[in-house]
Specification:
The protein is 13% helix and 34% strand. It is built from 5 helices and 22 strands.
Length: 388
């Protein structure tokens, strides 16, 4: 059926269809070359009232993924895209499920709230993305999918005290979650390898733990403290063909080395080490030169390290950020879905070892000095430049 033609339906809501038709017609008058599109949910039959017949492209949101096969069968000429997929939840660096059943919290003003929200795990998020992208990828009638969402955001929570969606391959700080590397594995030709979770399990030595990897290499070899880990040959030899590889390993503190091979040659490696106590900070800036216009910003990632320079993935350290010179502190964020600290303040606790500081330039050019300090001698500094 072409745009503007409706299927008759006794209970169809034609008013929305008529409004969509008006929008479509107006867009075509403004620009006849570009296609129009609409996103459908799965909780109503948009075919019955003609709503799905109006635009050039039809998108399927959320639960709408369950009806795309039916609609392709019934309307094989329809241009279709999954306009919302992978709304699974997961918090950066969380690998153990939290239980909140029956918990009650009393706020400072006396209000009482049920605690029915929790930090979801990285594994929860990975499974949601793999499941839904695996639905899209082999279906040639789908133009592709739009991730909802690529970056975590405020709202659409799973309940108090959670304040973010926990959606996204990146957390609200723009820090990658493990699932980010699933898409990097799929969509890059550059050899890549990512292993997780961190090697700091709170279990007795010898307890079997799982090590996982996303890699596009032909072969991935893992060793613990110099001893090669045996694994299933299909996982080791065909890394690019599987969603992720995994090994079950007796846990012992120390060093895990993963090496990726292509055509028998090492092309990449990643190392995990069991961290010691927090002893240092590392600041990484996405840019070091800003425009002196009062609006340009730089994102600083602050990581907690031990004395050997190893990232401490469960560090919960109160850090203070001080900015002098030609810039100001625009805000800070930890990425904690249950974090209630003020993002307009100058101090905040790290969440799973990391903190984001956003620096904004002033109108006048000059040097921007950023100092970060915590307790027990934790400190780091960086200098940025603001130029006209």
């Amino acid at each position: 059926m072409v745009a503007g033609q409706y299927r008759r339906a006794e209970n169809g809501n034609r008013r929305l269809t008529e409004k969509l038709q008006a929008l479509h017609d107006h867009c075509k008058k403004l620009d006849p070359l570009r296609p129009t599109a609409v996103g459908l949910e799965g909780n109503a039959d948009a075919n019955a009232n003609g709503f799905a017949m109006v635009t050039d492209v039809v998108g399927y949101n959320g639960g709408g993924m369950g009806i795309d096969e039916r609609d392709h069968r019934d309307y094989p000429e329809r241009c279709m895209v999954i306009s919302e997929f992978a709304s699974g939840r997961g918090a950066r660096g969380v690998y153990q499920a939290e239980s909140v059943s029956g918990e009650i919290e009393t706020l400072g003003d006396g209000r009482v709230f049920p605690r029915n929200g929790c930090r979801a795990t990285e594994q929860d998020l990975i499974h949601a993305h793999i499941k839904e992208w695996s639905h899209i990828m082999p279906r040639n009638y789908l133009a592709g999918g739009l991730m909802w969402s690529a970056i975590e955001y405020r709202g659409e929570t799973c309940g108090w005290p959670i304040v973010t969606s926990q959606f996204g391959a990146l957390d609200i700080c723009r820090f990658p979650k493990d699932v980010y590397y699933y898409y990097k594995k799929l969509w890059t030709k550059e050899p890549m390898l990512h292993i997780f979770p961190p090697w700091n399990h709170d279990v007795p030595p010898g307890t079997m733990v799982e090590l996982c990897s996303f890699s596009n290499c032909d072969y991935v070899e893992v060793s613990v403290n110099g001893k090669k880990v045996d694994g299933f040959p299909e996982y080791l030899q065909r890394g690019s063909s599987f969603p992720y590889m995994n090994w079950h390993i007796p846990y012992e503190k120390g060093e895990v080395v993963a090496v990726g091979y292509n055509a028998g040659l090492e092309v990449c490696r990643e190392v995990l080490r069991t961290p010691e106590i927090p002893s240092a900070l590392r600041i990484s800036a996405d840019r070091e030169i800003l425009k002196a216009d009062g609006e340009d910003i730089a994102f600083l990632r602050i990581d907690v390290l031990d004395a050997n320079g190893t990232f401490v993935p469960d560090a919960d350290e109160l850090l203070t950020v001080k900015v002098d010179g030609a810039g100001v502190l625009a805000g800070i964020c930890s990425g904690d879905p249950a974090g209630h600290e003020k993002e307009s303040a100058s101090q905040m606790h790290t969440f799973n070892g990391s903190l984001l500081a956003i620096i904004r330039s002033k109108d006048d050019p000059g040097e921007i000095s950023v100092a970060v300090n915590g307790i027990n001698g934790l400190s780091a500094a960086i200098k940025l430049q603001s130029e006209k």
